[in-house]
Each structure stands twice: as C-alpha cells, then as structure tokens.
Amino acid sequence: MKVLTVEKLVPGGYGLARTEEGAVLIKGALPGEVVRGKPVRRKGTLFLEEVEVLTPRPDRYP
C-alpha cells in the first residue's frame, strides 16, 4: 500500500500523483487529497486500486 498526495486532475476524471515508479492515476481523487491504495500497472500505466481517502479536500461533496 502506498500513501500519495494528489497533484492535479487529468482527463478521464483521474487524479495524478507521482512516485519513484512514475505517475499514478487515481479515479475520483481530487488535487490536494492524501490517499492510500495499491499501485497496479495495466498496459504500461500505473493506477491506484483499493483507494482510501485519508485527508479529503474541505470542499469535497460527501
């Protein structure tokens, strides 16, 4: 499991975070949020699965 901070939104509704392995796409995550999940590589792209938002944005809709 990795703990990451989302940097920005990218097309497709993904948040983007970076690790030593490269960029990671996180479905539904918002910039500034801290998330934890399992990195999985699919077709050469890293995605975070089993995502838990540890620190949500204050303006996140519940």
From TrEMBL:
One of its GO terms (molecular function) is methyltransferase activity. Keywords: Methyltransferase, Transferase. The keyword Methyltransferase applies. InterPro entries: NA-bd_OB-fold. One of its GO terms (biological process) is methylation. The keyword Transferase applies. It comes from the Bacteria. This is RNA methyltransferase. It comes from Thermus scotoductus.
